[in-house]
Amino acid sequence: MVEQEDEQILPYRESLEIVSLKEGKEVKIGTEIATKTKQDLIELLREFKDIFVWSYQDMPGLSTSIMVHRLPIKEDCKPVQQKLRRMKPDVVLKIKEEVKRQFNVGFLQEIKYLDWVANIIPVPKKDGKVRMCMDYWDLNKASPKDNFLLPHIDTLVNRLEVMRPIQKSIYETPAHCYSIEEEGKDDRPWY
């Protein structure tokens, strides 16, 4: 019997170059990009540096005249209020800080007398802050299933050869904010 060493599979780590666009605003670009492409990309990023989102204040969301998100719920489903989960006090403080930041810029709104209540799931970030995720298990069960399966974003991006130089920045871009349809807004825990 031959003993084999357990080989550890490590993720691919691309070396990155930090490029300063303006004071305090930096982006990371892969060093394996062709020199001409890298120069063109840096020039393009510097030309349009004002359209990038650097903080929550830079991201006011979309106008409701452009887009409104609607969450359909099956009529026979009863609203679910999840039991409150206990968290460590230091995590609670980080969540309160993040909620306050998002509330101050208008991402979150206070709603009273909720029919649906979902727990926050704290996910630690590398910088020590907390990413707030929601447990939508019950809401997903109450939502009608879509017959159209959405393709994976990584598959779509990989098909676009033109996008290769900025592929990494797509994954690091913060999510967009959408307004929710006014009808039934008071019944949902996340707006």
Characterization of the model:
This protein has 191 residues and is an alpha+beta fold. The protein has two domains: 1-52, no CATH class; 54-187, HIV Type 1 Reverse Transcriptase, Chain A, domain 1, CATH 3.10.10.10. The chain is 25% helix and 14% strand. It has five helices and six strands. The longest helix has 16 residues, at 89-104. It starts with 15 loop residues before the first strand and ends in an 11-residue tail after the last strand.
Task: Provide keyphrases for this structure.
191 residues; alpha+beta; 2 domains; two-stranded antiparallel ribbon; two-stranded parallel sheet; 5 helices; 14% strand; extended
Topology readout:
Elements: E1 16-22, E2 25-30, H1 35-47, E3 68-69, H2 89-104, E4 120-124, E5 130-134, H3 137-142, H4 153-159, H5 167-172, E6 179-180
Parallel strand pairs: 3-6
Antiparallel strand pairs: 1-2, 4-5
